[in-house]
Amino acid sequence: MVSHRRSTQPGLDRGARITVLSAAAATAAATLGAGTANAGPQDTPRSAKARVDRLYSEAERATEQYNEAGENADRLRDEVKRIQERAARGQERLNRMRTALGSVASAQYRSGGLDPSLALLLSSAPDTYLDRAAALDRLTERQATGLRQLRQAQRSLAQIRAEAARALADLERNKAAAARHKRTVERKLSRAKQLLDALPRADRADFARASRSGRDEVFPATADLPAGSARAAAAVMAVRQALGRPYIWGANGPAGFDCSGLMQWAYAQAGVSLPRTSQAQRYAGHMVPLSEARPGDLVAYRADAGHIGMYVGDGQVIHAPYPGAPVRYDPVGMMPVSSVTRV
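^ that's the sequence the OP posted. Answer follows.
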């Protein structure tokens, strides 16, 4: 993987430093602790901004984990369905084998189960009896083979059912994890909202302006480069159609998006299937230097790739920033860039 430090080009070290919410989530609740939600007398616009940044960053990591847990749950749900179908087919086969063996046993019972030597003595046609005895030997051999196959089928079915039980347990754990991360996200976003609401109106306006500053600056090295491919160009057209739609954490469109949900949706319109989380999306193609970015490339932010947007040319990305901020343009250097991926 190629990792990129923050660009030192003009225009890329200024502007918003507000951490935006993405799509995937923090690993453990213990790492997501935050201070009090209400702004106190000691809070300045700068300190309040830092606290909101931290809350958004923590919520963003929790969103990533929520998305990952949801994706895992979907995969496990499909796996459980496949295993259960295998188990049903195995049970049907077992039932057929039992029926066949039962028929053989019934036939033997109806024959009276005479000792073969006695049956030979009593037979009026010894040659006919010997032919029948040979056939019975073959039938008994087939029955023994059938019994072995039956026992093997029983063991196989037991293994399939144990596999299904493990998959179901994993599914329940992922559903519980998703619910836990959802509560974490909601708590962090609620604290951030309370903190912003407690600021004076003028400070809130400054805060909003700071989050948009520098967005008209151009990244000259890539301003006139075409899209990296036809599908990248189609994804750029799609992501532009999403401008103005609301940020909804955990959503991948079309009514609203979180950051990785927007990337997944835009590329889906181009016929490309991307993973759900920003961390996985950074590996959905090959890495290129930021100086060689082209429209359609995915730009991952921060060392943990906790946020992601799409480069659209002229030094701009389109992304879903955070709650209350719709899908929009921002400078590619709005946060430290960790990687650029060409899908």
